[in-house]
Amino acid sequence: MRSVRRTPPATTLQPAGPPLTGESRPVEGSLRVKHAIDRVVAAGLIVLTLPILASVALALKLFSPGPVLVRERRIDREGRSFDLFRFPALGPLRRWAIDQLPELFNVLRGELSFVGPRPERPEFVELFGENLRRHDQPHRVKPGITGWAQLRGLAGHAPLAERVRWDDFYVENWSPWLDLKIVLLTLRGVCRDEARA
Predict the structure, then answer these.
(1) Residue 177 domain flag
(2) What average pLDDT does range 146-164 have in this prediction?
(3) Using H for helix, E for strand and C for coil, what is the string for the chain?
(4) Residue 22 domain-assigned (yes or no)
């Protein structure tokens, strides 16, 4: 089937970004397989990184005045809230993405995928509803630890419209090969950052 280039409806914000193809969105069966693989891989990675998790937790307990584990409220694809687990974003923990290792437990619990739109704060989701008519698109698949928008540097305080536009692109064009590409590019970025440190 020929993909149809689609012009997004007018919004109060007019972001520049990638075109949407109009292809079918991920079917539920394929997503179930993807999320089952996520949980199996997350369980294996938790076992492999357990020494790192334990060492970081002990160091934070002994030398940091704050909490060992940070819980941040986020919204999933069904509009339900959950607690995102992270270590405090301190120094090398943040630089090497070690602060995100506890998110493996969110993947194991079925709240996150490895790849997908980043989960948003509740107040940001409300803002999407007020300003972007297409705001519900990123929640058609599970949120992820890494994603297409993050690879473009659109995270944190990046413009909401740009972030949602790239997340829409991911949802519209999802495939296992796109997930694999995003994972490989993410790993390359982490290794590059470590080499520069």
Answers:
(1) yes
(2) 75
(3) CCCCCECCCCCCCCCCCCCECCCCCCCHHHHHHHHHHHHHHHHHHHHHCHHHHHHHHHHHHHHCCCCCCEEEEEECCCCCEEEEEECCCCHHHHHCCHHHCCHHHHHHCCCCEEECCCCECHHHHHHHHHHCCCCCHHHHCCCEEECHHHHCCCCCCCCHHHHHHHHHHHHHCCCHHHHHHHHHHHHHHHHHHHHHC
(4) no
Report residue 152's pLDDT band, with 50, 70 and 90 as the boundaries: confident
Per-residue model confidence (pLDDT) at position 84: 95
Examine residue 19 and state whether it is found in any structural domain, yes or no: no
Please state the rounded mean pLDDT for residues 151-178.
78
The domain total for the chain is 1
Residue 184 pLDDT greater than 60, yes or no: yes
Tell me the pTM.
Answer: 0.76
Domain range for residue 145?
A: 28-196
